[in-house]
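## Example pair
The file below holds two records. Each record gives the amino-acid sequence first, followed by its structure token line.
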Amino acid sequence: MAEKVVVSVDALGGDNAPEVVLEGLAAALAEDEDLEVILCGPAEVVEPFAAGQVRCKALSTTEFIDMDEHPAEAVRRKKDSSLVVACRQVKEGQAQGFFSAGSTGACLAAAILVMGRLKGIARPALCTVIPSPVKPVVMCDVGANADCKPEYLVQFAHMATVYMQEIIKVENPRVALLNIGEEETKGSAFAQEAYALLKEKVANFAGNAEGNDILAASFDIFITDGFTGNICLKTIEGTSKTLFKALKGIFYSSALTKMGALTIKPGLGALMKSISPDTYGGAPLLGVKGACVVGHGSSSALAIKNGIHTTAEIVRRDVSSLISDAVSKT
């Protein structure tokens, strides 16, 4: 039997909230009998839903953080927002994990300001699974820290290693520094200093990686600053969507291509599933007390469900404690 886990969920997180959040949450509860949820949001949304679920508690809130608000200011000002209240449940020990598909900046600010950083962590980092058709690979950071010091990347590597081992189930993952060449002397002064520190302090460091190594899955973990990582991630996701849209246009362009599309439909479906960000449902913010997973604003019900599952799994695998142990040894 799995360990009982309580996850707080922001009912208003996402472009299609609350409907898609409720649908995904219902599916997550149905699949995991040891999952309990604190659903935070307007009373008219959360109370009727919780009344129909055995393992869901409604927590009414009166405020909402919009996508275009300044993250830190909104978190400090709107203390009764669904996002902040959900986050506070972890701080107060009512929940062990927090999930939202709301404003990424607000989620990061709330997790850091409300939940707090783990001891010894200089900067929590956003870590995500890159949708590679070869095998899952992880990139860290993808947006939490636009400006970094080389020593931060060492902590990113240790945190991402724990996540890769415990959640993605890859033993002895190979860590690479995202750079403009594979040679040790390549890149900016920042990259060269980061390389030297990673080589000295990260046992599973395998060297530099270039952009074309990511989807090829030449390494298991790609370490970079949040500015570069975010641009890289969105470029990959945007390219993927554009290519599949173009393929769909080709397949439906004539009777002949439609017949061809039918023959490869199963394989194409499997490929789309393998590179879909919905598979894991969100990116964890590593280095904070408790579990925090941030979903895409455009999350589907499937992504919401999987994001909640990922949050629960991070709690069950005690990822925060393992990160603390790993960082304390450096």
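Second record, same layout:
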Amino acid sequence: MSEVTVDAVGNHVYAVCLHRPPNNFFDTALLAALADAYESLADTPACRVIILRSEGRHFCAGLDLAHNKEQDIAALYRNALRLFAAPLPVVAAVQGGAIGGGCGLALSADFRIATSASRFSANFSRLGFHHGFGLTVTLPRAVGEQRAAELLYSGRRVGGKEARELGLCDSLVDEDELLPAAIAYAGAIAGSAPLAVRAIRATLRQGLVERLRLAMDHECGEQEKLRTSADFAEGIAANAERREPRFINR
């Protein structure tokens, strides 16, 4: 099976699903395939709304930094930017964790449906790393600048109930209702005039892609600087060993 599949799941609603369970770690190839799917659906008259979902325990745990230390982050972010540039509205169905870059992926969607067991975390600072995936722009848009700063500085995890209160997700449902709820949410949008929805979305997001491009360029540069730090090595080791990191400010 392909690691990215596309299926019609409702009236003018298509689901794009990631298949790298249980954590759905991404890399450049997976994001490129995801962007290809978005762009193909944009040219599919029957599709008006996309559902982004994943197979497995967690929605997405981002990039597996422990095993992808040589990943070309700039190339990865070029493909991430394609997700934001695609013209169709996206509803993300978020089960389990949306962690690190996975939180960034969830926030690339227009809307997020989650469960009480879902959790969101921009945990980069706990890894001795700079945040990425455009969270400089998308996180403040979702939760406000003050809350975004707190979440980025602390790297703490936010459960489903608090995520709904903060604005990280738009609806909270039972776990077995996640996909049906996402389909219903997307269906309500798909029932509107498709040309009007695309135009309204483009207006609301005017300038967003350029802001994200500049943000990702900066994020990438900061990440490259910190990749060689002792604190980054300690953060990755502590995360793998499931212990508190002992940072030394070097």
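Notes on the second record: The chain is about 45% helix and 15% strand. Strands lie at 4-10, 13-18, 49-54, 90-94, 97-99, 111-115, 119-121, 158-159, 171-173.
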